[in-house]
């Protein structure tokens, strides 16, 4: 990656290209936009690479109240600090950084505690604004406000991000791998490593072998799990998953007259030590809990279901089984301390990231990237801003 640079644009608006979503579910348009300079405690970043995540797709499809347009999506990225606002000492012009949807202020009780990664000073919300003042840093050439997404909005050559969402990393990290650590892959690896604390020799079941599910497999492999069972509707995912530690595979559409949980319970002699739901379907969340071992089993919810959906669990089973079920954002990782550790593990050739990148495209090809993900033909599609 590039290193230190002298900014000649600091304090001035920047005109650049961005992929703008004008209407829910319709193709993005490549437009010239205006990106305002950063305000106090904000960083303006020149995006080098961004990758497409399923959450971008989910909210791109949504209409009101959660779908707000026109909007600049994207929240997995790596870039270079172009300029900083007042009050920032953590990064400087030219630093290589990863922006994240989850904040890490380092000051509140949650950020200080080892028990939580959910900042209470700047909590995560589906907001179209910057955290501190509730306004946007984007406008189009007609002066119309363009809304933010997930506090990152990386489908733009430049973006403005609050410092609580910015992590400085080793400049030797390849940007097309670094961007993966902004969300999906980190969420999966972190869920096994931090949230569940998978133990060596354990059995793990993963529902859904997309990027997050494969990230869980990679995290479980690094933690020393000896049996990692993948569950998916696509049989091709077994061969893909083997690269990340998957040892067994269950096609959820080919279980005859049995439920997936019955098949898993039979394979594991009573249930798995850890189950991860990575699709975002309440039915699979219930199945994951059903095949989690009584007494000590943990079920971790990572998939994003539609707003308002309800889980249905038998209260007697919950009481008697001794199982644990919980959800986790960003896999329980604290961005500013844990992302650099993942970077180091990649640089030390422990953490596998290369296999997640199946396509690399230009910004002009972003709608092709959407199509690939919608059709299930990619794991992660990396978009180079200046390819």
UniProtKB/TrEMBL annotation:
Give every Alcohol dehydrogenase-like C-terminal domain span. 211-342
Q: Which SUPFAM superfamilies match?
A: GroES-like (SSF50129), NAD(P)-binding Rossmann-fold domains (SSF51735)
Which Pfam families does its entry note?
A: ADH_N, ADH_zinc_N
Q: Which domain of life is it from?
A: Eukaryota
| A GO MF label | oxidoreductase activity
Family statement: Belongs to the zinc-containing alcohol dehydrogenase family. Class-III subfamily.
Return the PANTHER family for the record: ALCOHOL DEHYDROGENASE (PTHR43880), ALCOHOL DEHYDROGENASE-LIKE 7 (PTHR43880:SF7)
User: What is the protein named?
Assistant: Alcohol dehydrogenase-like 7
